[in-house]
Design brief:
Layout lengths: L3 E3 L10 E4 L3 E4 L7 E2 L2 H16 L5
Length: 59
């Protein structure tokens, strides 16, 4: 069984995205299904979102 983790920004809420190590991501409102994400894709996502937070792109 996979241990799913919610973002620390969620608090006590149940309306969030959860991450399962080695499995992927899922919606907390529909936990029976998940979206598989490779470790490389997850790392790239985190790198890009961290860079965006550090230096937002102007539109």
């Amino acid at each position: 069984m996979t241990k799913w983790r919610k973002s620390s920004y969620t608090g006590d809420g149940n309306n969030c995205v959860e991450v399962g190590q080695g499995v992927g991501i899922r919606d907390s409102k529909a936990p029976a299904t998940h979206l598989p994400v490779s470790a490389a894709a997850w790392s790239a996502f985190l790198r890009l979102t961290s860079a965006e937070v550090a230096a937002p792109v102007e539109q």
